Amino acid sequence: MIHVLYLHGFLSSPKSVKAQQTLAWCEKHRPDITLHIPQLSNYPSQVGQQLTDYIQAHPQLTEAGLRAIGSSMGGYLSTWLVEQYGGKAVLINPAVKPFELLLKYVGEHVNPYTGEPFKIVQEDMAVLKAMDSENLAAPESYKVLLQTGDETLDYRQAEEKYADSDLIIEQGGDHSFTGFEKHLPAIFRFLD
Known about the structure:
The protein is α/β, with parallel strands linked by helices and 192 residues long. The chain has 7 helices and 8 strands, in the order E-H-E-H-E-H-E-H-E-E-H-E-H-E-H. Helix content is 35%, strand content 21%.
């Protein structure tokens, strides 16, 4: 059995469209894969410890090297984990500098999937910055899917950071990554 960790983005959940498409694809085409899709904390200051605890509770995730798929903030977190544990990750429109991006989100929010109210505070930015992997130990460990029409993140930041990775840049699209499901066979070939 192969274990793969899927990390959703900020203000998202395991019920997001991409997470559910990935789960459905695995069930149909790769029953040998167990897909882990934890509900990540809305609090940036808690998510690092949450992921460390999750991996400790599921050691099978790192037995053959971590395999992760991360969307947006989940891409940032996947990079942080691969840099710690080794392995491979596929990143979909990943956040590169969430500690800058989330400055405009300081304040109170409600997760639209879970209904959970939460607050982003200035101190969260230092926690996120501490998780930054400025220099990738093994750029070939990443496959990065970007769309130039991403309205939330500047795709060029990821293009620059992952320049030596397996980089796919599609014109147009949006932050949700239009047509994501057609990439699933290649995503799992990369992770194998």
